[in-house]
User: Fold this.
Amino acid sequence: MPGRDLSLLIDAARMAGRVATSFVGRTAQRWDKPGGAGPVTEADLAVNDLLRSVLSLARPEYGWLSEETEDNDKRLSKEHVFIIDPIDGTRSFVEGSNTWAHSLAIARNGIVTAAVVYLPMREKLYAAGLGIGATLNAKPIAASQISELSGATVLAARPAMIADHWISKTEPIFKRSYRPSLAYRLALVADGRFDAMITLRRSWEWDIAAGALIVSEAGGACSDQQGTALLFNNRDPRLNGVVAGGSNVHTALIDALA
Assistant:
């Protein structure tokens, strides 16, 4: 089943890419969501509508959780659920950047079994199926084997570097970089381009689900900020931060966090 579902997600992601790139980021109609939840554009909604139509037609028995669909409790009773971010990195899309992504995942009883992170403007399609490995453009990828934080490259927003977050009570010694899309950060870790990523804020499932499986199938590890394994399709679809990396550096990060 993971392989069959993965093929469905890959095809759907490519369709989403064609829809999203038909809009011009800077001129796409945009507005701000209520409650300071960030921007949304007509492209986000168009991609969401496409994906819901295509995926729900193919798997009508699966539940649905998406950033751009009003949530309800129906998904909680489903064995399988789609977890979708139509465009992760909407601000980047609006700015005309090429680092936004489509993030598509399927979870079964809380465990992600198939996942795709697709960056159409960079022609990068990351994919993974539970037990069948992770790929970038159909070629196998592997997470970093580094074990020490000293010299590690970690994708993190500036607030994660505040000294109070760390046992040492000093800014950590790793080299920090940043990408706006959480899904893309996870994919870069899976590909070994960066040793790890960390976010200490509450994180929506749709930002994380696909990338988490891609990291683990690439030989890495992904957990919340306390080292607890991630489960998806929760009533409150927010996670207690995310730490991901090669298995050794992941352990080092968890041990270093206050």
In short: The CA atoms of residues 73 and 235 lie 7 Å apart. Residues 2-20 form the longest helix (19 residues).
